[in-house]
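Form P-L/3: holo structure prediction, ligand adenosine-5'-diphosphate.
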Amino acid sequence: VVQVLLSIFLILALIGAFIYLLWTINRQNKLALLRKSFVNNMTHELKTPVATVMAALESIQRYGARDDKEKMEQYLRISHRELEHLANMIEKVLQLDIDEVTGVNLRRDPIDIVQLLEEGVEIAQLGAKKNVSIDFVGSLPRLTLVADAAHLKNVISNLFDNAIKYSGDTVKIQVGLKEEAGMVILSVSDNGHGIDPIYFKDIFEVFFRVPNGNLHPVKGFGLGLAYVKQVVKQHRGTIRVDSVLGKGTVFILSIPKQ
Ligand code: ADP
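OUTPUT (holo model):
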């Protein structure tokens, strides 16, 4: 009997090891594919503004020789806009150094979360090229949270940016904030394109972007939510998503107050 049990155990262990191996290979393959599409995206995204600025500089030189101030200013404006775009993209990639977002180097300062949200709203609306309304649901409780302000600000910006990017021309964002059992619960909902529930887990993975066959050709690297999740995790919090295709999406963050 002992021998039979031992054999069964060995066989099960072998099957388990084999399944684990397959799973690991599958995961590695997936990651390699995601990485490849990231590098492709990235190369393309970085090349475009650089080429535009180079062309604009040539034009400035040309119009400068003719003393055409108006044209020179126009191309200066274009250069400025493209460089700003480039700087934003670099900032996104730098943020991704999420291994750096560890509990060790996380700041723990008392933060006025409402103020942080209000700043986030201002920045999001300023940069948006759409008609964006961001409203708070009900009256906001004045909540103080012990957290890392810079990272939390980035988290809020990422959620607002996504809500705007993955929506039509009229964007309605609703922000909810409450305290429950020592946790701060923050929700950001939009009336955008929505996410198929089969991707709810994947969207938090580095480099993952929902494949939509260019239905909504939106630029991005698939880094934002991986960063958001990492920051929330380092604050001992959780994040979850709910969404209905064609209706909208809500992200719900829950972070301990202390
Ligand atoms: P990026 O926006 O650069 O692609 P993210 O990590 O921020 O990267 O998001 C991952 C993917 O999740 C996006 O490509 C998009 O498909 C989906 N997504 C994120 N936020 C939303 C949202 N508010 N509405 C619809 N889809 C979203």
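COMMENT: The CA atoms of residues 204 and 229 lie 7 Å apart.
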